[in-house]
Amino acid sequence: MATATVDAAVDSHDEGGHDDHGTTTGISNTKLAMWVFLGSECLLFGGLISTYLLYKTNRGPGPENTVIPTDVFDIPFTSVSSFVLLMSSLTMVLALSALTRGDNPATRAWLLTTAMLGGVFIGGQVYEFTSFIREGVGFTHNPASSAFYTLTGFHGVHVSLGIVMLMSLYVASKQGKLQPKHTETVEIVGLYWHFVDVVWIFIFTVIYLIPVD
Amino acid sequence: MNMTETVTETATHEESHDHPSDWDYVKIALLLGAITAVEVLTYFESAITVFENNAFTIASLIVMMVVKFYLVAMYFMHLKHDNSIFTKLFGGGLALATIVYIIALSAFEFWA
Amino acid sequence: MAVTDEPLALTTGEDLVVDRPLGVFTRPQGGKGWRDWLSTVDHKKIGIMYGVAAMFFFVVGGIEALLIRLQLAAPDGQILSADVYNQVFTMHGVTMVFLFIMPLAAAFANYLIPLQIGARDVAFPRLNALSFWVWLSGAIFLNTSWIVGGGGADCGWFCYSPNSGLAFSPSHGVDFYALGLQIAGIASLVSAINLIVTCLNMRAPGMSLFRMPVLTWMLLVTQFLLLFAIPVITVALFLLMFDRLFDAQFFNPEAGADPLLWQHLFWIFGHPEVYIIILPAFGVVSEIIPTFSRKPIFGYSFMVFSGIAIGFMGWGVWAHHMFVSGIGPLSVWAFSMSTMFIAVPTGVKILNWLATMWGGKLRFTTAMLFAVGTVAMFTIGGLSGVTHALAPADTQQTDTYYIVAHFHYVIFGGGVLGLMGGLYFWWPKVFGFMLNETWGKVHFWTMLIGFNLTFGPMHVLGLQGMSRRIDTYSPGFGFAFWNLIATIGAFIIALSVVVFFLNVWKSRRDAPHLPAPGPDPWDARSLEWMIQSPAPEHNFDEVPIVESDDEWWHRKYGYDENKNVVRIATIEEATQKGDAVGVHLPAPSFWPLVVALGLPIIGYGLIFNLWLCVLGGALVGLGIYSWALEPVDDPDADHDHGHDDHDDDDDDDDGEGAEAEMADATAGAEEGAD
């Protein structure tokens, strides 16, 4: 993917092994861009979360289809999948750390573990959605359910895209194209992954755990 | 506002000794897991009497959430050891989102 | 990153042009054909394409405006049915805001930011191309609703629910609105990220943030507003789309939903959007006025900080659009106060422009006329804006023509006049010939007179009680006279636009017979005037070392012992010759275009047949992956340079992979999630 000269990694003291003397701030453009993007994502998830909060007890005019997501939350189940996603952040930093050491097999192992933990989370979400629908919470039934599926669905799509990126890195590593000089690429994918994790930390507390009267 | 100064400062920070090791990351993850366990305990409120008070439960859940968020952002996302411009940009978006949406929800009399 | 920061002139004089096929397409290296434009990643060409496309949609939106004015010229107008009238005024607003002013401002941002900060290109040249093509595909998609969607959107540009719901808007117009603006939003978001990184990271040595020209500053603030406002409208548009296409229950009051949610989300975006429209014009004016007053801008740091302050405060005033929606007395009070406060930084700007002109050696070129016109007209619009801040007055004004008058004074009188001045000012830099000044002055005066005749009377009509968006009125209402005047004014504006296009045509025809304008025809102040006109493809032969504000001015002028300004270098001596060879530039790519083509197909798929989404998604996926795997530069070309420029090379290469990854993250995330 990239073909940076090895000199860069050697002269550079930072963990990323990147030589960014070319930019005004000394930071790489790409990493800066990712942080700028994540700043913007806060407003996106903020809007979706606020919409859900506004509607969380809105059962519609009734009497049909008035079951709302909070009626059917399965907190023990969601706790487990939240924990899985949380631990995927650990495996993500371990992948980055392994690549910094130049340990390619360990990098691949951690990348794959991260992607698989993400996959378990998505699987859990699919299970949750299907069981909610079985229990009478349809997407179109009332404002609360529309808002719930939209919020968690957006998050799920973000996780899925993260899995695609992780697997792309895994394949690149398999082909020998992911070397210590590319730590920054892994770091940037990691930033995205951790961001998706912190969004879920927020959702888990505010949407699932805080009791609704 | 002079970026170059910030850079030099950060460069010295990054002289690895205060950079977390793998074991540090594992410890942070264990802490995150422990906080999550306490969070989930609030759901089984009968187990612990203090969580019978709703206001206290909500307050402690929010505190725990903020701590978890902080730990992931500062350590896993390296904000603590990285150039402060990242914290400013991300924190700016986060703060703006928080303030704007709290005001919007207030306009709906959400908190009443 | 994908461009070098130092000159890479090859001492050996070897020819660096490489033409190597990569993947499906041959990557053209320069040249003049259509392929060059389709695959270019040059910020200047992308800027020109933004400008041309924006002017096209200016004409489209202008025709829609003329239809509105013809319908209202006399009582009981019969030209449009009520239904078509709704579509025309909606599409007029949407076109002018999203397809004309925003891209015209993007044209200035793309062309000028790298030049003003002394950079070779933007931070992510391919993402820049992506922004343009995605915006264009969204713009075309939005307008195809006239043909395949059963008409345009008919819910007003802010598309309040429940009017936007299926019950009241059964055609596909609103679906095209929701999806088209989402596609355009992806473009704005990617572009905002790109330009923010460019401003922070690509500045020439010595170009500290507080030496950046005011235009670049205002454009940077605009990009931050876009960065944070676009996701909010994205949420709103997604919810609207889910409501209409997948029967979700977000805005339908009959299903217990709260239609005010849309209003909040829309205006949380919508008010920053107002500043997204006006700040670039403020920046343009802040470049033109000092140049033609032969003085530095008065209170540079006040200008910059007031721009930043407007950017911040713009987030705290949105509900003043909703004073009559029943948001409650506390909200009305709070938003009324914040709205009055935001007039302060705007006033600072106006006073600083006047102070810049005070005692200056004024030259009233066309650009200067437009700039002064902007200040005057915006002041009128700003003052009527303060009258809306007072909630009791606003209650009377809401949804009347008084509001229409106000926002046209702000957006047309401020935004359009300012950017028009910018066209005259930078035209020689971009195209290498001057626009005719006589015709330019005719353009200015016809536009100014037409503008005031059109929108001035609307204040009166509004106070008389004429509602906006009504398709006709009865003779006895007493609206006929001022409506007729407004219609005459609208045609005078149309005439002025024709004059502008004729001027472009004539000036271009006459250019070969006139002396070339040279690098610095206006005796201007910022770095873009230091290079040849038109700007060479590599921008700067040597990246300038910046030592002061108004760097270019100080390279031409110094002070004698009596502190009088004296010329220290001729333009000829101080400019760069544009003759550097072997400057390392990012290679063109077709993949941004491929990604952009996939997005409207997904849009049609969501509306008509979900299978099309698979096709569009596959195209987007193919584009992103090929993009990620395509080196931004020719890998072998790097080896030619040897070790001496390794800094530049590894920036390039890291940039490539990293940029690709970023494209994956943003474009991918946007396409899939937003």
Features:
heterotrimer, A: 213 residues, mainly alpha, Four Helix Bundle (Hemerythrin (Met), subunit A), 7 helices, elongated, disordered N terminus, C: 674 residues, Cytochrome C Oxidase, Chain A, 2 domains, two-stranded antiparallel sheet, two-stranded antiparallel ribbon, 21 helices, 65% helix, disordered C terminus
The computed structural class of chain B is mainly alpha
- What integer value in Å does the Rg of chain B equal? 19 Å
Say what the CATH topology of chain A is: Four Helix Bundle (Hemerythrin (Met), subunit A)
Return the domain count of chain B.
2
| Element order of chain B: H for helix, E for strand | HHHH
Largest interface: A-C, 62 and 71 residues
Main sheet properties of chain A: none
Q: How many beta-strand elements of chain A?
A: 0
Please, what is the average pLDDT of chain A? Answer: 88
* Unreliable spans of chain B: 1-17
Q: N- to C-terminal separation of chain B? A: 42 Å
End-to-end Cα distance of chain A, whole Å, is 53 Å
Shape of chain B: flat
Approximate strand percentage of chain A: under 5%
